[in-house]
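Known limitations

Files may contain more than one protein. Parsers should not assume a single record per file. Below, a two-record file is shown to illustrate correct handling: read the sequence, read the token line, then continue until end of file.
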Amino acid sequence: MIKVALADDHKLLRNALATLIDSYGDCHVIMEANNGKDLCDLLKYEQPDVAILDYNMPEMNGYECAEWLKENHPAINVLMLTMYDTELMLIKLLQSGVKGFMKKDIHPTELHRAIHSVMTEGFYYSTYTSSKLAGFFRESKPVPFWEKLMSEQELSFMRLVCSEMTYKEIAQVMKMNPRTVDALRDSLFEKLEVKSRVGLAMYSIKHGLVNI
């Protein structure tokens, strides 16, 4: 019997998943949590074989929880429920110890296969996910890593952020509306998990987007 833990702040979806998983006969949901922090607390009493985490959760999201599990309970196989499937996001989740990715509309049979796959093979990647990752690393000629992760517009913005220009001046140089530049900045804050212009600049320097 494979012991499964669920962490998702949407109670209806979580309950539906628990019912579905229990119906397989060889899997049993032993704990349910509203967020990553609650799940970590529950692990004091019992440990699952597989943890299925939603990426978007309050207090401790799926990425943060996966990192914590990798550090504190590496034997737990982590599957992530996420609607984000950019190459950058998938690579970040792999680095955090996630063993597989699933969309929330995954077919019941595929969910069962995913649980068994991480238990027997140590990973689960759908054909779609595998194709995205393979395409990311397979190129006919070498391409700088960050050129694959960001659009040309994002790369240009990141370089300009490291200058002394204001956001308004950056908008003029990029021939964009200031509000569009603000939206681009906020998107990069979320994608790169930084909170300020200084954070963006430090990220650019660290990964070689600009030279100092």
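...continuing to the second record:
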Amino acid sequence: MSMFLLKPAYKDYLWGGNALKEKFGKQTPLFPLAESWECSVHPDGPSIVCETGETLSELIEKHPEYLGTHASKVAGGQFPVLVKLIDAHRNLSIQVHPDDEYARVNENGSLGKTEMWYVIDAEPGASLIYGFNQDVSRKQVREAVEKGTIEKFLNHVPVKKGDVFFIEPGTVHSIGKGCVIAEIQESSNLTYRLYDYGRGRELHLDKALDVINLKSSVSPRQPMRVLKYLVGFASEILSRCRYFQTERIITNTQQGIPVGIEASENTFRVLLCIEGKAVLDDGKTELELNKGDCCFIPAGNGKVEIRGKSQLIYVGC
């Protein structure tokens, strides 16, 4: 099978807004619209293969070779990643995610959740929470959650368009209001809410305290980023870990020849368009990728040529 477009699953969490509809053309009656799960095999929100109407998980089950030799090993044969767009119209809960070992034992064999964020847009004054600003104890955290004073122990980090953050399991964190983010993560939906601003949703304090890193975290600095340029094309690595590698690709071939990317035998590729428009051609299929569209390229698919003026998030394993 050639490359194909994906239709996302949508989530109407209470902190969402309307940005994914207004900026990315998402078509759903849900409101508020908090997340679109662009590339997902997770049962809580599988994406759909536009060409066939089946879920991506159904297709991968029939064709495990689409994962590639490396990717199939990373998560024990499971699809290793979940790619999302997130609109934080209001603050998300203050939360933490478990690692694979804790999730395997305590969450019926689920994967844990390592994730990274690429800030697509941010309102002036927007911020996020990343780690504690001092060493704390379980008792201090529990009491602060019960009293509603947990924020005094947390790092509040200003954000701007183009920022990148890598969130390891155990790191307390939250996306603040006014941020639109692309999130690349393990294929997991495990979130332990520590604090939710009195909004009445269930908290998971005991599990959160089991997995949380209580040590002070240095306020994250932006990683050194190096853009590599070719004619009509530039790329930079945003994040790399055992589960995924994420790059930003900038194309401008309006006046030049198409640029090409190779599809490895080792891993699938996912392309998420976050700006502009691109036309993809692998010699078998031609796809138009507009802002907000997501494309899956099976492992070993061959060279894909890209034409157009666009910015893409490029995910492999």
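Parsers that stop after the first record will miss the second one. For reference, the second record is described as follows. The chain has a mean pLDDT of 94.
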